[in-house]
Design a protein that fits this description.
The protein is mainly beta. 6% of the residues lie in helices and 28% in strands. It folds into 2 domains: 11-22 and 41-134, Thrombin, subunit H (Beta Barrel); 148-298, tm1086 (SG structure) domain (tm1086 (SG structure) fold, 3-layer Sandwich). It has helices at 75-84, 118-121, 154-159; strands spanning 13-19, 30-31, 37-38, 46-47, 67-71, 90-93, 102-108, 112-115, 129-134, 148-149, 162-164, 170-174, 176-178, 221-228, 234-245, 259-266, 270-274, 304-305. The strands form 4 sheets. Strands 1-5-8-7-6-9 form a 6-stranded antiparallel beta barrel.
Length: 308
């Protein structure tokens, strides 16, 4: 993205955590929006076969977390892991058969979510220690003072197409636009923690529950209408939030695939370009998965302009 930032003033820290196992309780069952009980996998552990660029919906799952779900055993250290890690931060496995493998943060949920190339992820298991090179909190755009940056590695921002337009607006390419009525669980929480669940993406449960979001993919860059995430998450008419889909299929009513926050501000500060290629898979692991390394330098982005 062709935009001036304060990236050279940011602090890098090495954070630690481990791949956390899936958790359950003896009650087991939950009820879906159709009233039917279910027991399905989703949060925690290592989820194989779902990566950035893959569909976010359509799985037999609940609160699907792609890749490896990471947290820290110490509550305070875990909060630092949640608050300080940013989308695009590099993660390296420090123990176990996959030691040395590198992946990237794709968002936050109850855990920090990490996508690895498929060959590496197959060797990752619960209990493996990981290190995160955390950088990005405090990232600012001096030329766009109305826009707040959240949870975004400066290298990812550089790689994204768009940037400052001659009219002063920030051009951002998005794979989908999300109406305000789709905002579900996560509203009211601070925007450095977890993500926002999107209603209306319950694939296979009928048109009455659809808001046209069944085609979302993991890693999609999306625009949330009338959403202000600068100081938390809430409804504010005339504002816009840019996020990245970091979790997948949910069955609980009011939940759904969830975006982690990247940018937020008045809608008239942005110029949106509809671009089906606006997905983390384009920039992580060398672009397109698998591979290695977050690519810098603005990538040429096609897409169809549709001003906000």
């Amino acid at each position: 993205m062709n935009v001036v930032t304060n990236a050279d003033r940011l602090v890098r820290q090495i954070l630690t955590g481990e791949v956390w196992p899936p958790l359950g309780d003896r009650h087991g069952y939950r009820a879906g929006p159709d009233g039917q009980p279910f027991v399905l996998p989703g949060m925690g552990g290592v989820t194989l076969g779902v990566h950035c660029g893959d569909p976010a919906t359509g799985y037999a799952s609940d609160h699907l977390e792609p890749g490896a779900s990471v947290r820290h055993r110490d509550p305070g250290a875990n909060m630092a892991l949640q608050f300080l890690t940013c989308v695009g931060n590099q993660v390296r496995v420090a123990s176990g058969p996959a030691a040395g493998a590198a992946g990237h943060v794709i968002g936050q949920h109850a855990y920090v979510l990490v996508d690895f190339p498929p060959a590496s992820l197959a060797d990752v298991t619960t209990g493996d220690a990981v290190t995160v090179t955390a950088v990005g909190q405090g990232l600012a755009l001096p030329g766009h003072p109305a826009i707040t940056v959240k949870n975004c590695d400066p290298g990812l921002l550089t790689a994204m197409p768009g940037g400052t337009r001659p009219d002063g607006r920030l051009e951002v390419h998005v794979a989908a636009r999300v109406p305000a009525e789709a905002i579900g669980a996560g509203a009211g929480m601070i925007s450095e923690y977890a993500n926002t669940d999107l209603m209306g993406a319950y694939q296979g449960l009928g048109e009455d529950l659809s808001l046209g979001l069944e085609g979302l993919r993991i890693g999609d860059i999306v625009a949330l209408a009338d959403a202000d995430h600068r100081y938390g998450r809430g409804y504010r008419e005339g504002y816009l939030t840019i996020g990245v889909i970091s979790t997948g299929q949910c069955m609980l009513f009011g939940h759904g695939p969830g975006p982690s926050t990247l940018l937020s501000g008045p809608a008239d500060a942005f110029a949106l370009v509809d671009d089906p290629d606006a997905n983390l898979a384009r920039w992580l692991h060398g672009g397109g998965l698998p591979g290695g390394g977050l690519r810098g330098g603005g990538l040429p982005g096609g897409g169809q302009e549709a001003d906000q």
